[in-house]
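In this supplementary section we document a worked example of the pipeline. Step one takes a protein sequence of length 635 as its only input; no multiple sequence alignment statistics are reported here. Step two produces a three-dimensional model, which step three serialises into structure tokens for compact storage. The input and output of this example are shown verbatim.
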Amino acid sequence: MSNSQRRYLGIKHNVLPELDLIDLQQDSYQEFLDQGIKEALEQVNAGKGIEDYTGKNWLLKFGQHRLGEPKRTPAEAKEKNLSYDIPLYVEATLVNKKTGERRTQDVFLGDLPKMTPVGTFIINGIERGIVTQLVRAPGVSFAGEKHQATGEVYYSAELRPLRGSWIEFIVGRRNLLSVKIDRRRKMSATVLLRALGIESDQEILDLYQDIIGQDEYSLLQNTLEKDTVHTKEEALIEIYEKLRPGEPATVETAREYFKTHFFDERRFNLGLVGRYKINRRLKISVDEQHTVLDKQDIVATIRYLIELQNGRGKVDDIDHLSNRRVRCVGELVKDTAFRIGLIRLERSIREKMSLTKTDSSLTPAALVNARPLIATVSQFFRRNRLSAILDQTNPLAEVDNLRRLSVLGSGGVTRERASFSMRDINASQYSRICPVRSPEGQNIGLVTYLALYSRVNKYGFLEAPYYRVVEEKNKMKVTDEIVYMAADEEEEYKITHAGVNVDAQGYISQDWVPFRFQNQFVEGPVNQVQFIDVVSRQVVGTSASLIPFLANDEANRALMGSHMQCQAVPLVKAEAPVVGTGMEEAVSSAMNRTIYALHSGEVIYVDGQRLEIKLNKSDLKQAQKMHASAQIENV
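The serialised model returned by step three reads:
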């Protein structure tokens, strides 16, 4: 067998970001098993635990969870048409409030599918992959709309949580600030400020005294004049009547309604990402663990809206990747299946508690029936639009299946409602989403693929890698320091592409270079450059990176080529291409379709079905340990 090295015609890079094509799936699901389950149980506990409807008889609290071992290996699950899963147990404590008796035992909460080492799941013997979803990020966004009659641009702000009611602020034609909650009837924006405890007109004016003098439209004064509400109690009743018309409103019910609507984590939750986005956009510093509504959020949103109407500030592009985030497999399972299952389980526990007298003996296991949870998790993996049967035409098709991004599915948009701007390529997708590959039918632009080196940060935003460029001896030098940046951070820097001339010492030899800045493609002197692309291929995804001389192809021919590679049938006798791109090894090995020895040793037997390796003594224990946890088979 010849072992000749492939000749590489491009620029050799000593330091490159790690290329792991499926770690996005693995890391996300592992985080769900480690943290997500715990968080969901804490939400159901809500601090004190699950009580019966009267709150006087029973209390059940979930404690630590543990995961059992899988009953079978992935190969056995496929062969016998079974699921590859692990049991979930939770420590539950039941307290009889009348007698003070406590009982603690481990209860079974169902089997959770276990991810295979290649990022897939085996459900009833069929291998499935969960498609990552791209959705609007929670937070605050500003937009402007031209009025047809007057020709004036009127601005609006939208505060959108991860879960709960939307709050929309609008500048009206008569220069009034109004607010809508959940697209219901309009009311003065100052009503919301008064409900939050800023009652008098003077207090409201004092909050905005620095911008009132610069406000040509007198938005705040006009709104206060028009406002018929003057106290906090009146404001609460006004909000209650707008949101629940026809129901009798008392101050107490209105206060309770307002509190649960915006200050209860189960009803209104910005999430860590929403809090981060609001803090960053409005330049406020609320604690990032505070994920419910805060007084500062409303005050700062109205301030920015007044400034925007007076020509200061900028509106948001909702298709920019700083306003769209990724929901990976772990978050999807937690929010669309596990959390819903736990809420149904909580309801059934409450009903059983209410039907059981305190003098009868009751155990946690008798109260907890895992069926609702098992049903929602099972339905997610079998029926959800984002759970796809793995496309196993060839190794590339498998990898691409796991690197797919979709805006469809629950919590996303429908195909009919998707606008052209959403399907279009946005400048912020550079090095984050592949510009070449997308379906050619009605899903064009709605289903896309991750670029090679892009990764997801803790808030769910896509990040791209760049080398830092520094000035040295009056020249610009490319360092080996790799910096990952999200789309909104990247806008503040001047970044050139990897095709510029760099000499052997790492200095950029051109005086005038193209670069990206503020989402625009411009040119300028080399001493302005702050970062440079890591490698030319970072712009495209796995499939397009296998096409040699891709830069010379017309875009829609390259798109067809990237599709056809995923439809190619593997050969019985595989051959390396004469002209390649260097990505062939990474793609073929990502899903373990090429055989690598995980431990050092000596190959003692090979045929078409079997390969035996005699391991070194130092590696034997580690191999047996991996075999025990079903990471590898047949040790």
